[in-house]
Amino acid sequence: MRHRSLAAVLSTLFMGLGQLYNRQYLKGLLLAAVEALAIFTFLPSLGKAIWGVYTLGEKTQGFEKVGRVTVRVEGDHSIYLLISGLITLFLFAIFLIIYIMNIRDAYRTGAAREAGAKPASFKQTFAYVTDKKFPHLMLALPAAGVLFLTIMPIVFMIMLAFTNYASPNHIPPKSLVDWVGFGTFANLLTLKTWSGTFVGVFTWTIVWAVVATVTTYFGGILVALLIESKGVRFKKLWRTIFILPYAIPQLISLLAMRNLFNGQFGPINQYLGYFGLGKLPWLTDPLWAKATVILVNMWIGIPVTMVLILGILTAIPKDMYEAADVDGATGFQKFRIITMPFILFSTAPILITQFAGNINNFNVIFLLTNGDPVNGSYQYAGSTDLLVTWLYKLTLNNSQFNMASAIGIIIFLIVASFSIWNYRRTRSFKEEDMIQ
Amino acid sequence: MKTRSTIFLVLKYLLLIAIAVIAIYPALWILLSSFRPGTSLYSETLIPETFTIAHYKELFNNPSFQYGRWYLNTLKIATLTMVFSTILITLSMYALSRFRFRGRQNILTTMLVLGMFPGFMSMIAIFIFLLQLNLLDTHAALILVYSAGSVLGGFVVKGFYDTIPRSLDEAARIDGATHLQVFLKIMLPLSKPMLTYVALTTFTGAWVDFIFARLVLRTKENWTLAVGMWDLVNSFQNSNFTLFAAGAVLIAVPITLLFFFLQRFLVQGMMSGASKG
């Protein structure tokens, strides 16, 4: 009884003391060093962090009279306060976990000593950790990276959606930012200028995602079947040629396409001219621009599906076709009853993933049309803008950070609901151990 | 009957040729344009009457571009990102696939959820974070962010490790191998196709990213190819198309060649990710 409570109390007072008491010197010193590091770095600013996140700063930048001269006084920078506050809170959470583990460890070792066991030497502890805690060890570094470079920024952006951080009135350091609750979402859905743009861009995003997914999917299937069909020779050559659009970096191919479809000097319109046809406003007319992005997306996306389908086609058991031949099935019947169900069954999850990917397909829109042609009735958006590209413009060009975050959250909700539905349906996520 | 199937076959070939032309044409057009004299987008013929390498020379000699320097920057960033991401992804996905520990399911769910947020929603936060760490305008910042971000896209790798029979490492464990030995001596050699896939995708990802690179890299000497290219397109619009074409060829050729050399691995990687979702 004595050992365990004494060790636990000592470790609560200062990390590592309990371990030192348990004669685990190296471990105790290491833990003490962790606490010392925390005290010297972020622990003192914990109070300020909580204050900063809660209030987002109280002092506006302004001028103050000092004696006879007026000097400019720096105000609080709400956004810096929010981020550094978040970082401190995240660090504190990690520290708290280590702290609790440290107390538990001291308590357990103390209990073991009471039972007459010798406390584990550092070598034994090390062996224990590398054996039983191996996965945790492997995950520690990636987890730290994800925590600070993905989770922290996402939490930050989610919080921004509930502030009024937007130009022109609430941009630090000139002025402060405040919490406004669901005000941003309310504006997005009710203010005429915002809601009009939102509904328009949202509708186009869904239409685009459906059409882009369906065209590339069935296009890919058709091309794959064409290559694999009876009598076609040089299958490998065709495959290699058709993969080319997939092999070229999108940055390059899309910028090239932008020139290719150029209304005035682009070669496509030039060729149309040879056939006696007029020039088409590929990228400048709202409706044509939408058609163009879908066409170009087919050029990029069909090879991907084609490669997948070609792989699946080779996996269809040959005896199924032989059995069908014996029964006297025609080519079309074989396709309808064997090939197509097989393809659909094995690619259904990918179809949903591609749909979700297309909702967030930034590259095609941004590089090809940049969201243009401009739509006069839209707020900071063009006719081909998707929610993501609109978000990008709002953030980087127009400083409407709160609105951008709200849109980001909405995109997340859309994608998440499709993905959850998908995972439930395929169940491969849940029953992953079934294969082995 | 015979003639009907012949007609069908001819139609099939015509269709294949048409698709092949569509697939090749844009690349061929850019390649040929990069050798065309003059600067204009418009050209009477696809194949230029005379060939010139003046545009390639200009890329490296014109003081307003530092193409050679950008090339080295990009090569450095992409290679280091590739190395770090491959290590991080392999380690973490191996752990998630092979071990059953408390919190594992939560980690998997968190990864899925994080993957559903639009990537650059976090840009502003990362930007300020880097500003406070004094890492803005450094290549280290890019490498750090790319590598840390790549872990979330590792489901394909996890799916791959899921398919390797567990009896393999259990046997080695019984023979007294440590976890590290099992990983290094048995799993790594088996994961060659997967490693190649991850290395290739992370390398290309860093090679062509211009969104984040443009945000972080402020001075022209530090730019990457993609940022320089983006700037070229935006500042010249279409007035110097042939120069753009030459730059595009130099960016695309290494990636395209890599892709064709490693195609086999890429398809394997895609398939193993596909069957597991």
Automatic annotation (TrEMBL), chain B:
Keyword annotations of the record: Cell membrane, Membrane, Transmembrane, Transmembrane helix, Transport
Domain of life: Bacteria
GO cellular component, one term: plasma membrane
Gene3D superfamilies: MetI-like (1.10.3720.10)
InterPro entries: BP-dep_ABC_trans_perm, MetI-like, MetI-like_sf
Chief place of localization: membrane
GO molecular function: ABC-type maltose transporter activity
Keyword Transmembrane helix part of the UniProt annotation: yes
Gene Ontology biological-process annotations: maltodextrin transmembrane transport
Membrane topology: Multi-pass membrane protein
Subcellular location: Cell membrane
Domain ABC transmembrane type-1: 71-262
TM region(s), chain numbering: 7-32, 77-96, 108-133, 139-157, 194-217, 241-262
PANTHER family: GALACTOOLIGOSACCHARIDES TRANSPORT SYSTEM PERMEASE PROTEIN GANQ, MALTOSE TRANSPORT SYSTEM PERMEASE-RELATED
Family indicated by similarity: Belongs to the binding-protein-dependent transport system permease family.
The protein's name: Maltose/maltodextrin ABC transporter, permease protein MalG
Source organism of this protein record: Paenibacillus pasadenensis
